[in-house]
Write a structure and sequence with these properties.
Oligomer: single chain
CATH class: Alpha Beta
Order of helices and strands: EHEHEHHHEEHEEEEEEEHH
Distance between the termini: 33 Å
Strand order of the largest sheet: 3-2-1-11-12-9
Shape: globular
CATH architecture: 4-Layer Sandwich
Number of helices: 8
Radius of gyration: 17 Å
Structural class: alpha/beta
Strand content: 15-25%
Bound molecules: zinc ion
């Protein structure tokens, strides 16, 4: 099976549509949460995922949009966008988000938005927090989002430590017997300095993970954000990928 791994779509419809198109062929989508928040098309993004064969976990912004997470845990711009999203969400899209689990274990694969320890909130950006995840949770491959930074952590059993690896966009990465935590990066609001939408493909027959980027019309998303009065800083950062 070829799984399209997407995370942090954040209401950016042109970005998710570019990914869904370029990533073909795939058998199903695994979505790591934050379908909404920040961006101008939350309903369209929910519908784009739920109308396809998929599994999805909840992210902190999804909970923010549902009123389940304290809105003051978010920074000012995120909060403004979440309050707008709360008003904008349709009845059935809200019901869909409300049903999402916070973690999914599929055999040896674990899907969470942020980390195995704190599925909605922890930022896995260093080897120490990655080591905690490897030591205390059972998985061969954990798929996470939340930081909007594509990267991998590998568990080195003999050394009892985790190492951080940068994604390779030219070659598929062979999984082998290793235990890994993989972050595909963000579809709708990349923060690694590359404004293109990020995603990954997990091929369970080839035993590989591929990292990918795809350009999308950033200016269309920006125009829609301006028309909806969303914060200027969120609009500008899209073209910088920061
Ligand atoms: Zn996010």
């Amino acid at each position: 099976m070829r799984y399209l791994i997407v995370s942090d779509v954040h209401g950016n419809y042109p970005a998710i549509m570019a990914v869904l198109h370029q990533a073909q062929p795939y058998d199903a989508i695994w979505c790591l949460g934050d379908l909404v928040g920040y961006g101008p098309n939350p309903n369209e993004c929910v519908d784009a995922i739920r109308s396809r064969d998929h599994l999805c976990v909840a992210g902190n912004h999804d909970w923010g949009a549902l009123g389940r997470a304290d809105i003051f845990t978010f920074n000012h711009d995120a909060r403004v966008a979440l309050l707008w999203t709360q008003d904008e969400l349709g009845e059935s899209e809200r019901a869909y988000l409300a049903e999402l689990p916070t973690r999914l274990q599929i055999g040896e694969f674990l899907l969470v938005h942020a980390s195995p320890r704190q599925p909605l909130w922890e930022y896995l950006l260093d080897v120490e927090s990655a080591a905690e995840a490897f030591l205390h949770y059972e998985f061969r491959l954990a798929l996470v989002g939340h930081t909007h930074i594509p990267l991998l952590f590998e568990w080195r059993e003999a050394l009892g430590e985790a190492v951080m690896l940068m994604p390779d966009y030219r070659n598929p990465i062979y999984l082998g017997e290793r235990r890994l935590i993989v972050n595909p990066g963000s579809v709708g609001q990349p923060r690694d300095g590359d404004p293109r939408a990020a995603y990954a493909i997990l091929d369970t027959e080839e035993e590989t993970i591929e990292f990918h980027r795809v350009s999308y019309p950033v200016e269309i998303t920006q125009e829609r954000m301006r028309a909806r009065g969303l914060p200027e800083r969120l609009i500008e950062r899209l073209e910088m990928g920061r």
